[in-house]
Design a protein that fits this description.
By secondary structure, the chain is of the alpha+beta class. It is built from twelve helices and 14 strands. The strands form four sheets. A five-stranded antiparallel β-sheet has the order 4-5-10-6-7. Strands 11-12-13-14 form a four-stranded antiparallel β-sheet, sandwiched between helices.
């Protein structure tokens, strides 16, 4: 690990000022960043610790939306009665992330800012048409994810919270890597008054919406309708775990399971 300076922020304003001044990195749960630093794959000169910023934590209901603070940990979301009542699919997503250590340290804001191509939260945010709230603006889910480990966030911009509209039905199903529990492929399906949205993670360089599945499920929200969709393997990822063709096969299978779980 390369040497670095640690700054502990007390407010969002303090954290933003420190990031703008130092050009460093925000430290949320550290489950991805610290690992990269240990391997010398990341070399931030300054880390701005967000763990002491109280305004970034918590879960609350605002009208027809569930708002989750960026520094809320996965384990807190998984155990939250408010989440289980409003959008139980989010509690299920949180419960399926990594192991207990990861869930007790990792945060939803950190996961979204990192935007790992196999992470679970991007699929939930995109499928539920959530809004990412930062210290500067509100970013629609369709505009937030830009590519592999790339988001719309500016260097000194901090995620404050995520606002999830409460859907009629929603569920997430993934084929996990047995070691990391990252999604080899994962599919989040959501049905709302505005229609059906389907987001896929783990199958490409970044999370994406599956238009063919959305169209099929808008006409007939059943597992059989999802299974009947054929996904083109072009543009999907291939590695030692799965070929693009295998991931293309998994997408409608997992979508069907998610529809069945949604009820």
């Amino acid at each position: 690990m390369y040497p670095f300076e640690l700054t502990r922020a007390k407010t969002v304003a303090d954290a933003a000022a420190a990031l703008a001044k130092s050009g460093g990195k925000a430290l949320a749960g550290g489950q991805s960043l610290v690992g990269a630093m240990k391997l010398r794959l990341a070399q931030p000169g300054t880390l701005v610790d967000l763990s002491g910023v109280a305004e970034l934590k918590g879960i609350r209901k605002e009208g027809e939306a569930l708002v989750i603070g960026a520094m809320t940990r996965h384990a807190e979301i998984a155990a939250s009665a408010a989440v289980k009542s409003a959008i139980p699919a989010l509690a299920a997503v949180a419960h399926g992330i990594g192991d207990r250590q990861v869930r007790n340290m990792g945060t939803i804001g950190g996961a979204l800012a990192n935007n790992d191509p196999a992470a679970d939260w991007p699929a939930a945010v995109l499928a539920l048409n959530a809004t990412v709230q930062t210290n500067k603006r509100r970013i629609a889910a369709d505009d937030f994810f830009k590519g592999m480990y790339e988001t719309a966030l500016a260097a000194d911009e901090i995620i404050v919270a995520v606002s999830f509209p409460v859907p009629k039905k929603a569920a997430y199903c993934k084929f996990p890597n047995p070691a990391s529990r990252f999604a080899l492929t994962g599919v989040f399906v959501a049905q709302s008054g505005a229609g059906v949205r389907v987001a896929v993670t783990g199958a490409a360089p970044a999370v994406f919406r599956a238009k063919a599945l959305e169209d099929a499920l808008a006409k007939n929200f059943t597992a059989d309708a999802a299974k009947a969709v054929k996904i083109d393997a072009g543009g999907l990822s291939g590695d030692l775990h799965a070929s693009p063709e295998y991931r293309a096969h998994l997408i409608p299978v997992l979508a069907a399971r998610a529809v069945a779980a949604a009820g």
